[in-house]
Amino acid sequence: MNINGLVRFIVVGMVVLLVISVGMYFLFKPSTTSPPNEADINAIYRVVGEFGARLKDVGLIAPDQDVITAMDFNLKQLITDRLYQAFVQDTSRIPGRAASSSPWPEGIEIVSVQRLDNGSYAVVGNQIMMDSDALAHGGNAGE
User: Fold this and answer.
1) How far apart are CA 62 and CA 68, in angstroms?
2) What is the C-alpha separation between 137 and 115, in angstroms, rounded?
3) What is the maximum alpha-carbon separation in the chain?
4) I want to staple 102 with a disulfide (CB 3.0 to 4.6 A). Which of 61, 68, 131, 142 is the partner?
5) To 10 degrees, the CA torsion angle through 27, 29, 33, 34?
6) Which residues, 6 or more positions from 57, have their beta carbon under 8 angstroms from its beta carbon?
7) Coil, strand or helix at 124
8) Are 119 and 125 in contact (CB under 8 A)?
9) Domain spans, the chain
10) How many other CB atoms sit within 10 Å of the CB of residue 94?
11) Under a CB-based contact definition with an 8 Å cutoff, are residues 140 and 128 in contact?
């Protein structure tokens, strides 16, 4: 092996080693999220539970101003100002009761809670829908 080939071999080896090292760093880097504490979890379940229970009181088939008024009365104190403004700008995004009869939103089942770096939480849940039959026989009308 001549000197040029040896230098090329060493350079390629160093590049491969560097790429592997960077990959290993990102693969085994400690998570930037931490588990939520019990007080936060209890507060999250309380707020999400109340939010889900109030969804049936926000009728979406009314005129936009009436939908916003229902949201103000039922949901505003449970959401951030940023989310509230997004709902006011586009009332089609407001969650609630889509019809005057069945099915209606009955609650939210929390699937997961993850604490983010900035101290806020990401909550994933499914909306529980209810109808007269499900109410009489148990269960739900869909998620």
Assistant:
1) 10
2) 37
3) 86
4) 131
5) 120
6) 70, 73, 74, 96, 97
7) strand
8) no
9) 37-137
10) 19
11) yes
